[in-house]
Amino acid sequence: MSPAEITLTARPFDGKADKTAVSTEAPVEVHVVHGSLNELSVRSADGTLVDGDREPTTGVWTPAHPLALASTYVVSARAQGADGHPVTKSLTVHTPQLPNAQVIHITYLGPGDGATVGVYQPIVVEFGAAVTDRAAALTQFTVSATPATRAAWRWVSDRRVDYRPEKPWKLGTTVKVSGDIDGVPLGGGVFGANAASTTFTVTSDVHAVVDPSSLTMRVYSGSKLLRTMPVGLGKPGFRTWGGAMVVLGKARTTRMTSCSTGLACDTKDPNYYDQLVDWTVQLTYSGTYTHAAPRDGLIGRANTSHGCIHLTTADATWFYSLAQAGDLVTVDYPTNTVSVGNGEGDWYLSWTQWTAD
Length: 357
What we know:
By secondary structure, the protein is mainly beta. The chain has helices at about 135-140, 315-320, 350-355; strands at about 5-10, 30-35, 35-45, 50-55, 60-65, 70-80, 85-95, 105, 105-110, 115-120, 125, 140-145, 150-155, 160-165, 175-180, 190, 195-205, 205-210, 215-220, 225-230, 245, 250-255, 275-280, 290, 310, 330. It is built from three helices and 26 strands. A hairpin with a 4-residue loop joins β6 (about 70-80) and β7 (about 85-95).
């Protein structure tokens, strides 16, 4: 009787980068004659077993997740021959190392691991380049919230996608996020190249409402009003953004310059400024903060800022000590509303708008 014969074939990578590489999705075909296959395994260079499934009728093994780029794998097969003797065979393959123009990295996944945040905190994922196949990217992310919370992803731009609950997270919720795009085709011959994960906890339910008509800011914890404070907003031509803005972070002191916001770089310009500002809570990427404004003697009576929310030093210190990332500040302007991507303006959209295609 004849001994078993094993044939192992891996699908080659369809690209010019490396003619000897195999596809990251590459099924491995396993065929046995004069015997039957007893065992098939695929392991990474460090010996880790790769998850996958073999279709018995075709002999094709497919990885559960695309193989990582620039990596080596060993395929091992063991068959029992018709002659009663075992036969083994192995095949070493490698995936392509692609040029920078053909890879996309997850450059940010937030909030950061171990963070404690407010109930309005969205999950934010940013990529190093535009993603063509958005569906392929999103299928590689998993979100687990305890307790379970209805939520959905929405693309904010071709490089950023956010995940927001329908209603604010419940206090005490723990959220775990993981995404692995390594080796995943993302359209146009471009592949994902890394993985990221984070776990955060919801510990604050602070939100503030700014009323431009009365120049006040009411600060709540849940439904309980904690404090009503006078404010100063943006003067004519520099109206403060309207809408719902998630707190991005805070700093004891922030250097604010008109040049950094593209407002004025000429020191002779009447709108030029370069100053250190205390007790700052950031609301937008474009430079909207709540902060102490001791030089503003018109707080609560008139608007004199370049778009920030001016507070007295006492009120700014108090709000700074209370606020944390994921809290919410809403400015009741019906126009000049903040864009979702200018910080984390996710809550400006209704749930119907958020989930619309």
